[in-house]
Amino acid sequence: MDPLSQLPLECLQIILQLLDDDNDLTSLAVLLRTNKYFSSTVLPYLYRDPFRKDFHSTRSRQMGIAKDLSSGRLLARMLLSRLPPTSLPTALTLALAPSTTPKQSGRNTRKSLSTAFSLFAPFTTKTSIKNTDTTTGTTTSKNNSYYSALDYLAHIRHLDMRPWYAEVDCCQAHKIGTPLTHAQKEYTKSDEFNKFYNAHPFAPTFSNNWRSNSTSVQFYYHTILHHEVPWSLGFFILEQLQSLTIHRVYSIKHYINVVNRLKNLEKVDFLLREIYEEEFNHGGGDGDVTEQLEKTIQQDVVQFVQDHARLFPGRLKTVVCFEGDSHWSDQAFVKGLQAEIYRVIPPLVEPTHLGQDNWPRFWANPGATNVMKVQRINGRELPETWVETILNDRPLLERCRGLKYLEITTSQYDVFDWAVQERRNREESLGRIITTGNVHNGQGSLLEPGPCQPSGLVPLEQVELKLFLSPPNNITKYTTQHNSVIDSLAFAFGQTLRQFIVSTPYEESTIDQLHLHIGRGWVDLRALTHLELKMAVNRLIVDPLLLTYCPKLTRLRMTDYSKEYSCQDVVPCQPADISGLQILRLSGWPALTFNPATLSSTPKLTSLEFSIGRSTDQGRQRVGFIPPLGELNRSYGIRGDSFQVEEQAGVSIIRPHWSWDWNLPLMTELILTSEFALLFEFRMLHGCPALEALTLDIRSTGRDVHTRILSEADLIVPVLQSTTTPSGVSSSPPPSPIPSPTLDKASEQIVLHKLKRLNLHGKWMMLDTQCLSHFLQILFPNLQHLQMEGWSFQTLKTFLLTIKENTLARRPTLSRAVRCLRIDISAMSAKQQGEVKMKYTNTSRHEDEDETWEEEQEEFFKPYAAKVMQCWSYNTNEYIFVGHDSGRWGRCKDTFERR
To answer: Entry's Gene3D superfamilies (predicted)?
Structure first.
C-alpha cells in the first residue's frame, strides 16, 4: 500500500486545513491527483468554495493564462459539462459547443486549457492529460473512470461567481471583432432571444456607443451567459449552498421562486448590474438607473430576504448590496434598502469583530446587539459616519469591553474621554495620585505608579489612529485638542497598549501652521513595543521624557515635515534605556531632539535612520535643511576658528554630544541625511560589522552648499581624539583641508566585509587618489552597488581608473555576485567621455522601465564583468550611467557639473 495512504485521516485533515487557510491551490491540486484515498478527502476543501478569488488569481499567474482564459472560466466550463445537457439553456449550450474553441490560439490554447482542466478535473497520468478534451474537460483515457465519476458539484457550499467567470465562450469574450458562430447568430434571430431582449433591452446611451446593432446583440448574448451560468450551476445544488451571489435584477425572481430550497443559505451578495450596466459599458448616463428600476430592485430584494427569514428563521445572517458596483454604491436609496433588509434578519449575536462584512447588520439594530465580546474593530473599512455612531448615547467603544484591536479615522478629539475617565476613577479608587496637567482635559500623569492590573478596563492592545487635521482660525486651541486625543489613548490604555500607530494626511495649505506636542502627561507604557507617529505637521514636539516611559520598544518611528530651524530652539530629550529596540527611524524634529546617548543601550538595533526633509520639486528625493556651519558647531560645542570669541560672548552648548562610538553589532542599515550626515564620523562603522547598506546625504535646502572632504584619517579608527573641528566639514566654497588630528600608531583600519550598497549624496570630495583607493578597496571590499550624486573629483578618468584598478581588477577570483560592481555616474561631458575613450547611446526611456537598453561602448570595463551605459533620467539635462552585469541591471548615480 502507498505509505501516504496509511496517514491517519485526522492528520491528513489538519494538513489540508492549513493548505486551505493559505489558499494553496497548487498543493491541494497535487494531493487530489495522488490517489483515490487522497482525492476523496481533498475534494471538500478544493471545491467547497471553488471560485474564491485567491485560487484563481494565483493559479492564473503561475500558469501564464491570459485574462480571457482565466482558470475561473475554465472551471465553470468543466462544472457545466457535468450537468445533464438537456438542463442547459440554448445560449449556454451553444457557448460550450466544441466549435467555439478559438482556432487562432492553436497549440498554446489547447495546452493552457488541458493544464487548467487537469487542475480542477484531475486525471491520473500525463497520458490522460494529453488526451483531455479541452472543450468539455472529459477524457478518453481508461485510467480516468474514477475521476470522471467524482461528483464535484456535491462539495460546493459557496457559489460566489464574479461576472467574468461566466464568460465561458472564451473566443467571444470582450472581443468586438470576433463574430458569433453561425449557430449563435441563428439563435439571436429566434423568438426566444427576441423575447428576452425586448423584456430587458440596453439603455439608449449604451446602444448608441456601438457601431452596429449586430455588435450590441453580440454583447447582449454574453450578458445572457452572465445570468445563465451561475443559475445553471446553482439550480442543482441550492439545498447545500451557504453563500450565493445574484448577478442580475431579473435573476432575483428566479431565486424567489425557489427560496424554499435555500435552507442552508447564510449569506447572499446582490451585485444587480442590469443588462446595460455591464463592464462593457464604461460609464453610462445618470438616467440609466430609473426610479422604476430602483423600486423593482427594492421590492424584489426585500421579498427574497423576508421569504427566507419566514421559512428559515435566523439562518440568513449577511446580505451585501451592490458592493464594488459604481452604478449603485453612491445611490441614496441603497442605505435605506440595507436598513430595511437588516431589520428583517436577526441582529448579530455576540460578534467578535465589527467590520465591512457585518457593520450594516449591526447598524440596523445597534442597541439590540451585545458587543461585550468584540475584540477587533476595522474602522477604516467602515462608512465615515461610523464615528458619529460611537459618540451617540452610550459610546460603542465603551460597550466593547473585550476590545483589543482598533482602527479608527476621525477628526473628533473627544472619542476616548470615557476611557480616560475610567482610568482616572480606577486609579483614584486604588488610592493612587494623579497630578494635574494640561493634557487630556486635565488628567495629567500618575505619581509612583507601582504594580497595577488592568482588571475592569478595556484591554486595548493595538491602535491605528488616522487624524484629519483641518484647523479653524484658532490654531492654538485646535492643536491642543488633537494633542489630547493622542495623549488620551496613551493614558487610558497605557497598561495594555502594545502597538500605537498615529498618522495624519498631508494638507499643503495648513502643514506649516501645525505644531503637535506628544507625550506630555504620559505614564509608564511598559507593554508598548511598537510606536509609530507619522505626522504631516510642521513640527512634532516630543516630550523630553517620552522614551523613558517605553522601556520595551522594539520599533520606533516618528516623522514630521520640519523645514528650516534654529539650533537654539532644539530642546533635547532625556536619554532612555531601550535595550530591545531593533528599528529606529526618526525624521524632522524628533530626530533633532533625540538624545544620542540612548544608542548606548540599543545592542539589538538592526535599522537606524536620522533624517530631515520634505520632497523636492522632482518629487522622488527628500532634501533636508542644514543650518549655517558656525551655528551648527556652536550648538554641539565643536571648536572652530571663532570658538573663543563666541564663548566669551556667552554662547552656550545646548545639545548633547554625538560620540559616534556605539557598539551596534546587528545593524544592517544606516541612513543619515542633513546635519547628521555632515557630522558623521566613519569610525562609527567599526562598531557595525554587519552593516549591508549605508546612505549619507549632505545636500541642503539652505543657502550654503556644504562640502565634506574625506581624507585617510576619516577611514581609520583613531586611538587619540582631537577637540578641533571634525576633519573635512566646511561650507562652500571649500577651503583648504584642515590638518588631521594626531593618530596613534596602533590605529585600526575600518573594513566592512558585508557592505553591499553605498549611497553618498551631496558635495563629497577626495583630494587624492590614494584616499579613493583606500575607500573602495579596504573600507568596502565587497561593494556591489555604488550610488553617488554630487561628488567632486579632480578628473573623471582618475575616478573610473581607480575603480577599475582597485575594485574590479582584484575580484576575478571571487564569486560573480561579489566581483560585480554596479556604477552610476551622470552629466558626463564630451571632454570627460574622451578622457576614458568611451561612447554612449542616449535613450529617452525612463530610468525605471523594465526594458532592454541599447548601448554602444568600448572595452573599458569589459574584462572585469562590468559595463557602463547612458540613458536619460527624470531630471532635466542629467545623464545616468548604469552598471550592467550579465543581464542584471543595477543603478547608482553621481551628478557632475557640465564643464
So the answer is: Ribonuclease Inhibitor
Cell numbers given for 653: 552648548
850 vs 751: CA distance, rounded Å = 35
Beta pairing, strands 757-761 & 785-789: parallel
Q: Which residues pair with 245 in a beta bridge?
A: 269
Q: Measured at the alpha carbon of residue 313, what is the angle toward residues 311 and 315, in degrees to the nearest 5?
A: 105
Phi, psi (rounded to 5 degrees) for 551: -70, -15
CB-based burial label for 59 (10 Å; 0-12, 13-18, 19+): buried
Q: How far apart are CA 886 and CA 865, in angstroms?
A: 7
pLDDT band of 555, cuts 50, 70, 90 = very high
Res 265: pLDDT: 96
* Cis, peptide link before residue 313, omega less than 30° from 0: no
- For the chain, the average pLDDT equals 71
> Could you report the per-residue pLDDT of 423-436, keeping only the tens digit for each?
989 888 888 766 53
The DSSP bridge pattern shows strands 267-270 and 318-321 to be parallel
Q: For the chain, give the percent of residues with pLDDT over 90.
A: 24
End-to-end CA distance of the chain: 81
| Separation CA 137–CA 148 (nearest Å) | 10
**Element (H or E) spanning 665, and its range?**
none
- The CA–CA distances, whole Å, from 295 to 289, 290, 299, 300 equal 10, 9, 6, 9
Q: Let me know how long the chain is.
A: 899
User: Reduced to 3 states, what is the DSSP secondary structure of residue 161?
Assistant: coil
Domain assignments of the chain as residue spans, ordered by start: 48-236, 239-346, 562-783, 809-899
Average pLDDT over every residue of 697-718: 82
pLDDT over threshold 70, residue 858: no
What is the spatial distance between Cα 824 and Cα 822, in angstroms, rounded to a whole number?
A: 7
Identity of residue 601:
S
Q: Among 126-130, 503-507, 620-624, where is mean pLDDT lowest?
A: 126-130
